[in-house]
Specification:
This protein has four domains: 1-101, Orthogonal Bundle (Helix Hairpins), CATH 1.10.287; 105-245, NAD(P)-binding Rossmann-like Domain (Rossmann fold, 3-Layer(aba) Sandwich), CATH 3.40.50; 286-394, Rossmann fold (3-Layer(aba) Sandwich); 448-564, Alpha-Beta Plaits (2-Layer Sandwich), CATH 3.30.70.1450. The chain contains 25 helices and 20 strands.
């Protein structure tokens, strides 16, 4: 706020000085002009009287000659004063108008308003640095789930696009360089309600700077960063970045999983999708010879994962020296001769993975003319080319922005999901298929919600207190409908974490301990109903044993007294019976 005040003073210094000087000249001159009073005696205005007359004259061209009719000398000076003071006022008003059009002042006002909006956030929020293709998808998904977001973006046009979107929350957004520590501080990196920051710009070095600065400013903050370069990723890891996301590595890993374990792949897509979306069954990539066009970061990740699954690959690369491709066919893949040299007639699949959307579409169109039975994987680099890809029905479309946004969403909303998905990869495909069947039976074919529950007095006071009072609470109680204890909620317990150990798909008969952490997935209705059971002692007790407990504090006090009295009498009764 001080910066805005001093900026206004600097811009208005000359106009203010001009107005003050003109007023001073007019006032002093008017006191020197001789006049006569109503009795004909010589009279001069005092400084106060002159200030009063010049003040209303300069702004309204006068109310008359007060307190006495003026002499010719006074009228002549008043005429001069009118022009002397009105012109500086026009000059000052013009400067005021131009001041509010000043980019520096606009930026200062916007920055101050942004900082106030962030300071007034009283619920958990995430910072998203970069409102590009990936950032916009993530912000939309978080807003859809009712999670507050703060955005920093260096491009003003993108900030304008954000303000035009119809989000359910007002999203504070600032056009500023996120590499600057001041920007991160204004965005709330040290705010007590800030849960994490995602660096999602299209520049690895900017993401590195944001990740490093965020960790230095707040070491306890969860930091997610996009990195496509291995050296940058290693640098991020050395500073403790929690989640480093490479879209090409993630896609290559997913493609390999899709080849040998379609159930595991489908489970991963389902649990990292946007809740409510319908999940379509993916096509299974065939086993055989694959042609990969483009051996950049994307192509290398794909080739590595396909070869791990014992799939033969033939690489087409336009610049082998730049990409360090030792055994490949030189070309872009858009030419029929190059594809024929790679053996397109005998291939089962083709991957168009260059950094040009037009070239990728040209590659697959040419390849399909030569071999209509190809399994097609195409890389989509820019979301504004989406209409072009919609008219081309590829078997798999790789969208880096979509992959990163889904991974960030899973890690932000349910951090336990990351560990669960890692453990899922250690299970076989049949295990994944059985879990998918169970999920379909509970929530249908829509992407379920996922959430975590911690058994403690802060997040689930009813559960923690009943356990501490000696009443066993099983996992089954948390799966019951608080409105009807005989009905099950539409949810599935995915994982139990106890004392650093992870247990997949725990049984509902498992007795809970204080400190346990649970991962659930299910319908949004189940997610909203479960907190009643977690926090309400009366509801939880009714679910466990079907008994109603006293609701008022007096009845609870009396019940505890009676219970203690009965316990004290129980040993005496046994003794007397003998």
């Amino acid at each position: 706020m001080n910066n805005i005040f001093f900026l206004i003073l600097r811009r208005m210094r000359t106009p203010l000085i001009t107005v003050i000087v003109s007023y001073t000249i007019a006032i002093v001159g008017l006191t020197l002009m001789p006049g006569v009073d109503d009795l004909g005696n010589p009279w001069h205005m005092s400084l106060f009287e002159a200030f009063y007359v010049i003040s209303y004259t300069a702004t309204t061209i006068g109310f008359g000659e007060v307190p006495f009719p003026y002499s010719d000398a006074q009228r002549l000076w008043m005429t001069f004063s009118i022009y002397l003071t009105v012109i500086p006022w026009f000059y000052a008003i013009g400067k005021i108008i131009s001041l509010f059009q000043d980019p520096a002042l606009k930026q200062a006002l916007t920055t101050n308003s942004f900082a106030r909006a962030v300071d007034h956030l009283h619920e958990p929020f995430f910072i998203v640095s970069g409102y590009g293709e990936t950032g916009s998808l993530l912000v939309k998904a978080l807003d859809h789930k009712g999670i507050r977001v703060v955005v920093t973006e260096v491009n003003q046009d993108r900030v304008n696009d954000l303000e035009l979107e119809d989000y359910q929350f007002d999203i504070p957004a600032l056009c500023a360089d996120a590499k600057m520590p001041d920007t991160l501080l204004r965005a709330g990196v040290r705010h007590p309600m800030c849960k994490g920051i995602a660096a999602l710009t299209d520049n690895d070095h900017v993401n590195l700077a944001v990740a490093v600065a965020a960790k230095l400013l707040n070491p306890n903050l969860t930091v997610l960063a996009r990195a496509e370069d291995d050296d940058v990723a290693a640098n991020m890891a050395s500073f403790g970045t929690d989640h480093i996301l490479n879209p090409y590595t993630l896609f290559g890993d997913q493609l390999g999983t899709e080849v040998h374990a379609i159930g595991t792949y489908l489970l991963h897509k389902w649990l990292t999708g946007v809740p409510g979306d319908t999940l379509n069954l993916p096509k299974v990539p065939p086993i055989g010879k694959w042609i990969v066009c483009g051996y950049g970061r994307f192509g290398k990740a794909v080739v590595e994962n396909l070869e791990r699954e014992q799939i033969t690959t033939v690489v087409i690369e336009a610049d082998p020296e730049l990409t360090h491709c030792e055994n490949c066919i030189v070309g872009s893949g858009t030419e029929a001769s190059t594809l024929k040299e790679a053996g397109i007639e005998n291939a089962v699949g083709i991957i168009a993975g260059t950094n040009s959307d037009i070239n990728n579409l040209s590659i697959v169109m040419t390849a399909q003319k030569m071999n209509p039975n190809l399994f097609v994987v195409v890389r989509k680099n820019r979301r504004f080319n989406e209409p072009l890809f919609e008219h081309f029905n590829a078997d798999i479309s790789m969208d880096p922005s979509d992959i990163i946004a889904h991974e960030c969403l899973a890690r932000m909303i349910t951090p336990m999901m990351t560990h669960f998905l890692q453990l899922v990869r250690t299970q076989d495909n049949n295990w994944a298929n059985q879990l998918i069947s169970r999920l379909v039976g509970v929530v249908g074919e829509s992407v379920p919600d996922a959430w975590g529950v911690t058994v403690d007095t802060e997040h689930s006071p009813a559960v923690a207190n009943l356990i501490s009072w000696g009443l066993p609470v099983t996992l089954d109680a948390l799966t019951r409908d608080p409105g009807n204890r005989t009905q099950k909620l539409d949810l599935v317990p995915l994982m139990l974490v106890r004392s650093g150990q992870y247990f997949l798909l725990p049984e509902v008969t498992e007795a809970l301990h204080v400190g346990d952490r649970l991962l659930f997935c299910g319908s949004s209705t189940a997610k909203s109903a479960q907190p009643i059971t977690l926090s309400n002692h009366k509801t939880l007790t009714w679910i466990i044993n079907g008994r109603e407990i006293a609701d008022g504090w007096l009845w609870r006090w009396a019940t505890r007294k009676i219970t203690r009295w009965r316990k004290s009498l129980r040993p005496q009764g046994k003794h007397s019976a003998k």
